[in-house]
Amino acid sequence: MTILSWAAGMITVLVAAMPVTRERLNRFAALAGLSVTPDNARQIIDHFAGLRRQRLISVALAALVTGLTHDPFYLVVGWSAIPVLHAIRLPPTEGERIYRTAWLLGSGGAVVASGFLLLNQGPTPARLAHAAIVVIVAAAVLLATARKSERPDEMGRWSARSLYLSGTAIALSGALLTPGQPIQRDPPEYAMPAQVSHSAASFTTVDSVKGPECPWFDETDAPCRWWLVNGNPFPQAAPYTIRTGGAPQRAPLVRSPDHKALVYLDRHDRRMIYQDADGIRPLTGVLADAAVPTVTFAGQSRYVALAKDNAQITDTRTGSTITILGAHQVHDVNQNGIVATTASHVLVVDHQGRTRLTLPRKDPGDTYYLHPDGTRLAAVRDAEDRVDAYAVRTGKHLSSVALTFPGDESLGTGLGWSKEGPFLVRGYLYDRVYHLDLTTGKLWRRKR
User: Fold this and answer.
1) DSSP alpha helices (H): ranges in 299-338?
2) Is 126 helix (H, G, I), strand (E, B) or coil?
3) pTM summary value
């Protein structure tokens, strides 16, 4: 409301300072009942300019009061006060009956409206100030119009029309306009928590993870502004990343499959961090929000893969790291190799960074799994309900089997090779796990 009040005041001041045109000057002289002659033209111009200066000063002061009180009533008073003040010194010209009638009706309506508001809302300092100003102006109008002008063309007089309209404007605005109230923010729909410690939280196992849920309220430390680990705030993890032209997105925080480690974006230094019960280990340097990678665990939680423009795979046991240039996604990692995809190819790379197999990438939705011994690669073609197998050493296409599930089941996702040996796939509709013979395409339910 403060901004609106100041803006209204500035607009009113600008209107009062508008340039004087010949048409406006002629209209002023006609309304004031002045006869313009070559002898008095300069005097009329000076008189009109003086009245404009007075109105400009009055409006500027009223704009200041309005900005401080948030009460637009004072803008109306500042604009209309000059005719009333001049009428106290000099009686106005003879006025038309219609304007006197309008003033009487407006004043009567203002009295009724003010009485209704006082009965329903009670007196307030602002309403009492309005009433006092309206009474003073009404008395001035009555006093001025009761007097008679001895010289009908006396310089400095305003028309009765201007006096009545000014009085009507002040009376009505005094009844109808009230001070604005500053905009109150809605209270949050959640209870504010106790002060959260900003020291790093620790854990032995990660039993539960809950993500932040209010990206637009970064100024509060409400529960929805934190990652919750085991039900408690995890203050060292960044809740959101901000990217140019986009809405805030959750920063990565990924739990390892064995529930013993987390990888997350540090809230303060913006590095990707690996944390387990033994402590904290940085995986990257400082990152811009647009460069934050996706996180994947592989190899029974041993390996952490970070993928963006390149892929970085870290062995959490040894601390060794390998980077695959141009790789946008890491599909599988084990002790005998890494499977990653670029925009156009599928790569199998060993842990020394040497490429062992390169295949054209067919569909972005395909997923790839490396046999534990590193000798075979399975490509799960989800769109075709088909699985292809390749020899890693030679690149030979070993088999291609179409999957025929019982009933109305279809392929959901591949799961890699089981400890028992056969390849595993999961159904889409019923979440059932099946063994798959990559040579014959035979499927059979896995026993739990």
Assistant:
1) none
2) helix
3) 0.54
Task: Give CA–CA dist 99/146, Å, rounded.
Answer: 15
DSSP structure class, residue 250: E
Contact 374, 339 (CB under 8 A): no
**Beta-carbon contacts of residue 166 (< 8 Å; ≥ 6 apart):** 80, 81, 83, 84, 137
φ and ψ at residue 155, rounded to 5 degrees: -70, 140
Q: Which of 419, 408, 357, 358 is nearest to 385 (CA)?
A: 408
Taking a C-beta distance cutoff of 8 angstroms, is the pair 83, 163 a contact? Answer: yes
User: Comparing 32-41, 181-190, 234-243, 340-349, which segment has the lowest mean pLDDT?
Assistant: 181-190
The rounded distance, in Å, linking the Cα atoms of 52 and 410 is 85
State residue 142's pLDDT score. Answer: 75
The pLDDT of 381-394, averaged and rounded, is 94
CB 166 within 8 A of CB 102: no
DSSP H helices, 147-287, are 160-176
Pull the structure tokens for residue 31: 């309304």
pLDDT for 274 equals 97
CA 151 – CA 336 distance, rounded (Å): 113
**Confidence band for 414, pLDDT divided at 50, 70 and 90:** very high
- How do residues 98-117 score in pLDDT, each as one tens digit? 667 776 777 777 777 777 76
Cβ neighbours around 92 below 10 Å, total: 23
Question: Do the beta carbons of residue 443 and residue 435 sit within 8 Å?
Answer: yes
What are φ and ψ of residue 206, in 5° steps?
Answer: -105, 100
Q: What is the rounded end-to-end Cα distance, in angstroms, of the chain?
A: 66
Per-residue confidence (pLDDT) for residue 121, from 0 to 100: 63
